[in-house]
Request: fold
Amino acid sequence: MSHGRIYNVLPKNMWTPIVSEHFWIHTQLPCCLSFRRAKVYPTGSTYIVVIGRCTICNSQFKGVVEDKPSGNS
Reply:
């Protein structure tokens, strides 16, 4: 029996290229991001939180989506 918490996450292997490209477009930093998790909070004050780090320089990454996107975005 598992006693861990249950939470929503983004679909595996589908969102990482999108976040990486968005990071590059806005920063143009040569970081190679490795993501640890992307939790979704459908009813929280924050909608998505993505955690990761750069495998080259070990910089920490935290991405936040505050509001749920519209259905056609």
Notes: The longest strand covers residues 33-40. Residues 8-65 form one domain.
